[in-house]
Automatic annotation (TrEMBL):
It comes from Streptomyces zagrosensis. This is 8-oxo-dGTP pyrophosphatase MutT (NUDIX family). Keywords: Hydrolase. Signal peptide: none annotated. The keyword Hydrolase applies. Its cofactor is Mg(2+). It comes from the Bacteria.
């Protein structure tokens, strides 16, 4: 009999980098599908979340950003979602920050891209709902940035 799995909580920082009505997204191929993700990743021990967002954006996109404010807090508890059988030990907490680029936002290319990353793209905020942006729960809140009316706060355990 297998021993019960003990979930490990991983804290992450993600960035909604906005410039001229567009958001910077990573194009990716994940589980056989073309999709998009926000830049960002795991927090290092002793690293404040806003610094993790800034570091991850620079590593994955080459951009230096200013972290303006935290927008949302999202959880993902794998045992509650579609891939529960394989992700039962996954529990991720993501702080999602609004960021603005410093310097030339057209110069892209990070030195530590995610393995699934296939490119970077500036996407008009209004087009986000039609994208396969993962997690899907972020599509509407990101689109609301176009009108300046995003709901800030806790998004819950969403996929």
């Amino acid at each position: 009999m297998a021993e019960p799995l003990t979930p490990t909580i991983r804290t992450c920082a993600k960035a909604v980098v906005v410039h001229n009505g567009r958001v910077l997204l990573q194009r990716a191929t994940w589980e056989g599908q073309d999709c998009y993700f926000l830049p960002g990743g795991g927090q290092l021990p002793g690293e404040p979340l806003d610094e993790a967002a800034r570091r991850e954006v620079h590593e994955e996109t080459g951009l230096t950003v200013t972290v303006d404010r935290m927008l949302w807090l999202r959880e993902y508890i794998g045992a509650h979602h579609e891939h529960a059988a394989t992700e039962a030990g996954t529990h991720r907490i993501e702080a999602i920050f609004h960021c603005t680029p410093q310097g030339d936002p057209g110069t892209l290319g990070g030195h530590a891209e995610d393995q699934v990353q296939t490119g970077l793209e500036w996407v008009e905020l209004e087009k986000v709902p039609g994208l396969n942006l993962l997690p899907h729960a972020l599509r509407q809140p990101i689109t609301a940035l176009a009108t300046g009316q995003p709901q800030a706060g806790y998004l819950g355990d969403v996929a």
